[in-house]
Amino acid sequence: MKRKPSAWIAVLLVVAMAFAGCTKKGTDPTPTPTPTEEITPAVTEEPTPTPDPKSEWDDKFLKDRYAGKFKIGVALSASIIRNETLMEVVKKEFNSFTFGNEMKPDSLLNQRATLDGYPDTYTEPVLQFVSIENGLNFARDNGFGVRGHTLCWYSQTPSWFFTEDYKTGSPLVSREVMLARLESYIRQVMEFCQTNYPGLIYAWDVCNEGVDKLTGDENAIRKKGNLWYSTIGPDFMEYAFAYARKYSDGTAKLYYNDYNCFDKQKEILAALKPIQEAGNIDGIGMQCHLSTGDNIKSRVYGVAKNFAQNGYLVEITELDIAVSGGAYDDTMQSMKYKLLFQYIEQAKLDGEVDIDSVTIWGLSDFDSWKRADKPVLFTTVVGGLQRKPAWYGAMQDPSIDAFEW
Ligand code: GLA
Asked: Which distant-in-sequence residues (6+ apart) come within 8 Å of 405 by Cβ?
């Protein structure tokens, strides 16, 4: 049968379309899968995020955990105080701080100005407060309390302060002159803080590390390398506390602060007895530079109880727990932090120990004086800080099974 021309055109079009389709498919031998309901969501859906087991902790912070019981403090350097990113963490986690170095005599004593004013400065050294103003402003503006650390210490106090003409290597001054310098120093530091930042300092470490069984005198008063002892004599701490009481406006408690208290509790109590009897001391600061091998119950709780039973307030002033470098370090460290906070909190609740602050000696392992031993609660990561297992220990995370033997 003869077809009409229009019919032939239609046939040709169909063949041409079929051919075109074949050649296109021919470039991609894989058949396009027909989308099914099962496949489509798997391709287009976002991967389900792995739930962070700790996310429930994100809005929990140390200072809130212990609110109403005791302040949670941290040692800070001037450079951390200038770092806004780090200070955001500090503001959330802590409500007290201690200057790591900036408030020590070698930061506050101004040798140049003292020499310039000599001999009028003979018993009135010149001080400068630039190293602490920034931090004290931060504390005032953010509701922080500050531990005043430290007024009278054998270390980080320049040797020129003890000499006749305020020059290193010159002869030491007499007991009377050094007592006058000690009184002047304590008065100036306390007056500066009380006048410019009333009520901000809640504890003064009037004397630091004045007892030493190995290098001390027959009563274990630190003697070797201690220019306070060389100039004033064994009763230098009694004078330091008397001056601190004299110039205190009463808003801060007066503390004696020391390390290894577990090892020298008897000697510390004996050394402080006359000071306590004179009514010039309120508490004992236990530094607590510990390691994961230490027994918390005997080294911290037992000692704190002993001091409290002898009439002292107690603060944990420089807490860090060094790890020894083993496989279970993180776990051990978090257990020890948990035990320490458990004991301290319970002792406070039971009225056994009147403790009003626990201070961690460093914000992150990176800025700790024992950096290699990773002793504190945070580690430094790109862009800020990360909580370590130790932090969860300090929070008494119930999933941490803390025990010691
Ligand atoms: C002692 C002092 C602190 C600090 C540490 C080391 O414990 O009391 O001020 O110097 O040593 O960082």
From this structure: none
The predicted pLDDT at position 54 comes to 60
146's tokens: 């500050």
Residue from 318, 319, 320, 363 whose mutation best tests the ligand 1 pocket (most atoms within 8 A of CB):
318
Closest CA to 62 of 388, 392, 332: 392
**Full DSSP string of 72-141:** EEEEE-HHHHH-HHHHHHHHHH-SEEEESSTTSHHHHB-HHHHHHTTTTTSSS--B--HHHHHHHHHHHH
Query: Cα(134) to centroid of ligand 1, in Å?
Result: 21
Report yes or no: 261 and 211 within 8 Å, Cβ to Cβ: no
Is the minimum distance from the CB of 256 to ligand 1 under 6 angstroms? no
Per-residue model confidence as pLDDT tens digits over 91-138: 999 999 999 999 999 999 999 999 999 999 999 999 999 999 999 999
Chain position carrying tokens 């902790």:
57
Whether 352 is catalytic: no
Ligand 1, closest atom to CA 257? 8
Q: At what angle do helices 302-309 and 261-277 cross, to 10 degrees?
A: 10
Partnered with residue 221 across adjacent β-strands are 211
Q: Nearest residue CA, atom 8 of ligand 1?
A: 208
Nearby residues of 66 by Cβ (< 8 Å), 6 or more positions away: 72, 341, 345, 358
In order, the DSSP letters of 252-300 are SEEEEEES-HHHHHHHHHHHHHHHHHTT---EEEE--EEETTS-HIIII
CB contact burial 171-184 (16+ within 10 A = b; e otherwise): eebeeebbbbbbbb
Protein residue closest via CA to atom 4 of ligand 1? 100
209 flagged as catalytic = yes
